[in-house]
Design a protein that fits this description.
single chain, 178 residues, four-stranded mixed beta sheet
């Protein structure tokens, strides 16, 4: 099924002054390899694209960096980020996210890019890309499996971060008297 048949690109705007560093998403604070997002270093005062929880955000600049994020909250994103909303009666939002996160999609979207310094993907190529046609039950099964793995990865990253902080504190304590 083509993305244009099960979703659409969102263009609704929100004033940047209504956003914070935590709910503004730009290509700068999207992490590569579908790694999520971090707080933005700044928030523009101009109008930006409004996104909703469960939208799929895709960096349109240098798509080969695989900056794709499944929105966990409402907010605003820069015009260099494409906001895609699934039609839930045809396609689960999270299934669309997983389909867009594949190397196959990223390679296809990257191939449609124009420009050399800051290549940008072609939105028409994005909308015409075909994702696997599955029933909603099959989509839910896939989402359940991959979602569980994503949750485990997130928990392990949190544990790793705490261990790293502990190690740094111990290192400083042990070597502060030298």
């Amino acid at each position: 099924m083509k993305i244009c048949n099960i979703g659409k690109i969102i263009t609704a705007k929100i004033d940047g002054t209504n956003l914070t560093r935590d709910n503004y998403i730009s290509t700068e604070n999207m992490l590569s390899n579908c790694g999520g997002v971090v707080a933005s270093s700044s928030v523009p005062s101009t109008k930006v694209t409004r996104f909703s929880k469960h939208d799929v955000l895709l960096s349109n600049i240098r798509p080969y960096f695989k900056k794709v994020w499944f929105a966990r909250f409402d907010g605003g994103c820069s015009n260099d980020v494409i906001c895609i909303r699934a039609n839930e009666k045809d396609c689960l939002s999270q299934y669309l996210y997983y389909a867009i996160s594949t190397d196959s999609f990223i390679d296809s979207f990257s191939a449609s890019s124009k420009g050399t310094k800051m290549p940008r993907g072609d939105k028409n190529a994005l909308l015409s890309y075909k994702i696997p046609d599955r029933t909603l039950d099959e989509q839910q099964h896939i989402v359940d499996i991959l979602g569980t793995l994503d949750d485990k990865i997130e928990n392990l990253e949190e544990v790793n971060s705490k261990i790293q902080s502990y190690c740094i504190a111990k290192y400083r304590l042990l070597f502060s008297n030298v």
